[in-house]
Amino acid sequence: MIDVGCGTGFFSQIIKAQGAEVTALDLSSGMLDVARQKNAAKQYICADMEALPFADQTFNVVFSNLAIQWCSDLSLALTELHRVTKSGGVIVFTTLAEGSLSELSQAWARLDGYSHVNAFLSFEQITASCQPWQHQLLLQTDKLHFPDLARLLNSLKGIGATHLTAGRRGGLMTRQRLHRLESAYPMSEKGLELTYQTVFGIIYRD
User: How crowded is residue 55: how many other Cβ atoms within 10 Å of its Cβ?
Assistant: First the structure.
């Protein structure tokens, strides 16, 4: 099986421990270095998931956790994942849908008038991208709470969203800017809230 967008190899390591032969793929060589240090997979490939360096029908299982939302073309990415999946195999993925990280987006907009957060596709758009194949999709809303903004922003590293800290328009996240952003952040009784609209998907390869 292949873990596409494996990051630091968290899931690769778990899947390998269950006896699977895992190929770990990520666009970041630095992430792959961390995965390699963990001995998370059998092999490590640095490549773009929108142009996978594998022959057709290579893997029985293609797995991707919170990675395809960063692709420029979801349909192309899914087509590539489908291409390298063997007949009778499955593609299992999670991704983020519209409404995710909305509180952070609102805080940035209040601070400097710019969202700094990716414009995630709607659930309907994600569903449309899966239409060429037999599939199942589930949308789940989760609201996480953090005692302060530093820990909230640190949690985003787990989904490869480190650029959300200062934003793609540049500018360092100074202590003063962090304080201003925290002041602009909507507060709930449980602390700083962060919403995830997570899509769980399975695509079946005929």
Answer: 8
* Domains held by the chain: number: 1
Which of 74-83, 154-163, 178-187 has maximum average pLDDT?
A: 74-83
Q: Is residue 3 part of a domain?
A: no
Beta bridge partners of 197: 141
Tell me the residue range of the domain where 76 lies.
48-205
Looking at residue 188, its pLDDT comes to: 87
Buried (b) or exposed (e) across 177-192, using 16+ Cβ within 10 A? ebeebbeebeeeeeeb
> Considering the domain boundaries, does residue 122 fall inside one?
yes
Residue 111 lies in a domain: yes
Summarised one tens digit per residue, pLDDT across range 26-51 is 999 999 999 999 999 999 999 999 99
Distance between CA 190 and CA 30 in Å, rounded?
35
Q: Is residue 107 part of a domain?
A: yes
144: domain CATH number? Answer: 3.40.50.150
Looking at residue 162, its pLDDT comes to 53
Whether residue 165 has pLDDT greater than 50: no
Cα dihedral across residues 71, 73, 74, 78: positive or negative: negative
CB 49 within 8 A of CB 23: no
Per-residue pLDDT band for 13 (boundaries 50, 70, 90) equals very high
